[in-house]
Amino acid sequence: MLHEAGHAIACKRQGGEVREAGVIFVLLAPLAYVDVTTTWRLPKGARIQVTLAGMYTELAVAAAAALLWAHTAPGVFNHVCFNVLTTASVMTVVFNANPLMRFDGYYLLSDVLELPNLYGQGQQYVRDGWTRLLLGVRSNRALDPGLRGVLVRCYGVASGCWRYLVLLGLVLAAATLLEGAGVVLSVAAVAWWCRGVVRRAACFARSPLCTGRAVARCAAVSAAALVLGAAVLLLTPWPGAVVIPAVIHYAPETIVRTESDGFVTELRVHSGQLVVPGDVLAVLVNQELAHEVSDLEVAVAITQLQRRVYVGQGASAKAQVEREKLRVLEARLAEKRAQLSRLIVRAPRAGQVVGRNLSSLCGTYLRQGSALVAIVDESAKEVCLSIAQSDFDAVCARIGHPVRVYVSSVGVLQAPLAKVEPRASKRPADPALGAAYGGPLPVRRHEAAAPESDARQYELLAPRFTGVLTLSAGQSRAVYAGQLADVALHADQSLGAHLMARAADWVALRLHRPRRDS
Predict the structure, then answer these.
(1) How many angstroms separate the CA atoms of 163 and 167, rounded?
(2) Residue 146 burial (CB < 10 Å; 0-12/13-18/19+)?
């Protein structure tokens, strides 16, 4: 309304007259309009000012919204200001300033080129071209010679292509946003367009131009176009590729965990250090466990002494009880001594130590099973893929074959696809792939998860499969673990087969969407 009000005010100020204003509906979407056709009587400069007034108004509103958005805290008002900023700036340039649509940009171009009927002449050129191609009938209409005629021809072709592209976009948008009702509305819109085509064909059949030669030419050209289109769809390979998000992992990655509770008193390694099996990684202390061992040693000594006394007194029954008690105490002592010995954490394999902020572990209390460090091999890494269900068959067909891996810091790598897990899961292959941590996959928190829970409490919106690519030693040293990558698989199908498959998936999603409670 503000946009159209800008046109109306500018028209009045330039001496024109506003005859009508109102709202029209395009696919149930309200669009305001204003009639300023009287500006054609005004000078060229005045017409251009009236044409640009609507966009001036919108850009002024966008500027005010930008200032408010930049100086307000996040919230509803801030969000509304951002939407107004986007709509009044980007959208007005994409649509209103676009000369291929009969909005402000078109009238501005007409005024600049001094071609008041540019759209009509361009569309007439396109219709005459189709008539000549299909029927062999030449038109008697002549376009302006020179550059003006070239501009009209180019504009007619470009505006025609753009019009059908916009109609297709509106139909798909209605079918997507309005779900079932949108599908019905889209079918009705396509049927209405086909009705116009049939009506024009019927009018041509009753005209003097409808001769046997024209009909034969039209049939031949249409058949040739169908054959050519079918050949292109069936023989042209699909140029696109299936892009699968992935993350780089160590293969394998050995997580060293504490086997006993205790305080970390000494950390003898640092991140990046090479170790061999048996090297001491850390030393923990558990005074409570040490006291338990001392108490059990005293209890064992007392029980042994008591058993000897009973044996010397000939009390065999009491001696047998003390013997059984001694056996239990010795077993407990052996278990506690083993736990005490495991307070010295040693490397289970050779490799490189990897850990974050290892120095901060000193003085901290770790429970049994807590991760201490990881031991890895920098020359052994793999690429872990997160595969959508629709891409599962295409990926499985590539097992054992090299595929392309795109890594931002390295470029393109070729690596063989080793395996694909046959079972899908909603658990992300790596937390880095989830949108909560900057990844490409949408995730949500488990309903039973606490707000402070870790990344394992996130799940994918739809189950995905997991695949693995093995990297060579040289490739492994060139990339980093935890780095995101994209795996591209070129589909072995024609252009038509790919389009049919995507259309079938889209229709199935729109018409057979499962219920939320299913």
Answers:
(1) 6
(2) exposed
Which residues span the domain enclosing 154?
118-235
CA distance 155 to 176: 31
504 domain residue, yes or no = no
DSSP per-residue codes, 144-193: PSHHHHHHHHHHHHHHHHHHHHHHHHHHHHHHHHSHHHHHHHHHHHHHHH
pLDDT band of 410, cuts 50, 70, 90? confident
N-terminal to C-terminal alpha carbon distance within the chain: 44
Beta carbons within 8 Å of 436's beta carbon, 6+ residues apart: 443, 445, 455, 458
User: Which pLDDT tens digit goes with each residue over 349-367?
Assistant: 898 888 888 888 888 888 8
Residues 354 and 210 occupy one common structural domain: no
Q: For the chain, how long is the longest CA-to-CA vector?
A: 136
Same domain for 286 and 212? no
Burial class (CB in 10 A: 0-12, 13-18, 19+), 185: middle
In a domain, 186, yes or no: yes
CA–CA separation, 3 vs 22, rounded Å?
13
| 466-498 pLDDT tens trace | 999 999 999 988 898 888 998 887 766 677 777
